[in-house]
Amino acid sequence: RAKWLAEQVAARAGASAGTSSPVDELLALRNGALPKGGAPIEKRSRYIDEPVATPSDGELDTLRATVQALSEKVAGLVDVPHSRKRAADGDRYDTLNSRLDSIGIAREYAAEATRRAFVEVPEATCEDGDLLRSLEAILAEDMTGYEAASQAVAESRVIAFIGATGIGKTTTIAKLATQAKLKGERVALITLDTIRLAAVDQLTRFSEVLNVPLTVAARPTELAEAMDLYRDYDKVLIDTAGKSPYNAKQVKSLATYFPEGWGGEIVLTVSSTARQTDLFQNLDAFAQLKPSGVCVTKLDETNAIGAVYTAMRRSDLPVVWTTDGQRIPEDIARFDACQFAVEFLGRLRTLSTLSSVA
Q1: Rounded Cα gap, residues 6 and 12, in angstroms
Q2: Pairing assessment for the beta strands 158-163 and 265-271 based on DSSP bridges
Q3: What ranges make up the beta strands (E) of 240-323?
Q4: Strands 319-323, 332-334: pairing kind
């Protein structure tokens, strides 16, 4: 037993002197060597040094398509209720926009009014009475901002009417002249239209019936002389030859009669029956003459009464008068923003009712 103990002690002493500790063995493994005389391990980098093959364009496209498909699938699973709500909102907006467009409001202004209405009544349908009343208030608010300017133009002593051919300038002047005469005002007429003899004859007959003076001015100097002649009159109304808004030279020739500070106000006359592109062209082309207001004619010949609102928004000018027939002097009225908004709402309600019944 004593002999066996001596051998064990000697063996342990020799192991301590000739071999490494467990820690030393781990360090040796880290450095690529095996303990107890084993074969060395090939030292490897922590990261792979070999170059990775670049995927081809086709493989990249396939990968992108796969990722996109998965993304859309996940988004659809997560956001189905929101997607359906957005689609429903889009349908409501499109429906109301189409109805506003069908009664004369240009798409850009219809979209703005629609957005504002749905902000006030978020959950409404297009047939909702609250939504329609909101639209009425929005239109009235937009148009009442021009009332002071409209009144100033209507009360001006000298007013010239310009615009394209065949839109009712001469008839409008006859209506206003008759109204002024009935109020006891001294009225005088001037026409610059020497191109159409029929126009001169028509205005001549009006002047004879009303017993008011009429002067034909063929040149700008003659217009100035006529205005000086009628300087003591209460109302001087000036008719002009119709000019094509698509002919810049014609419009510019008319501008020579109305230089800066010429002594009166200019009213641009447009027809509510004109296509939207033609209405825009009229408003834009005659803007160089710096009109103070707009007169919208022939409202009795169209359902698109929203042309009044469109004209006001496009030109940033007040609508001063509207006409709705040939009778003199009945079929002309000073523009009333609130009354127009009510009438407009009536047209819109008719469309909503027809849609609901359908």
Answers
A1: 10
A2: parallel
A3: 265-271, 293-297, 319-323
A4: antiparallel
Q: Could you give the strand order of the β-sheet that contains 265-271, starting from the edge strand earlier in sequence?
A: 214-216, 187-191, 235-239, 158-163, 265-271, 293-297, 319-323, 332-334
Distance CA 191, CA 63 (A): 77
Written in H, E and C, the secondary structure of 59-79 is HHHHHHHHHHHHHHHHHHHHH
Q: At what angle do helices 337-357 and 57-102 cross, to 10 degrees?
A: 120
CB-based contact 312:294 (threshold 8 Å): yes
What is the reported pTM? 0.71
Cα 319–chain centre separation: 19
Q: What is the pLDDT of residues 149-196, one digit of tens each?
A: 999 999 999 999 999 988 999 999 999 999 999 999 999 999 998 776
Is the CB of residue 134 less than 8 Å from the CB of residue 331?
Answer: no
What digits encode the pLDDT tens for the residues 242-262? 899 999 999 998 999 999 889
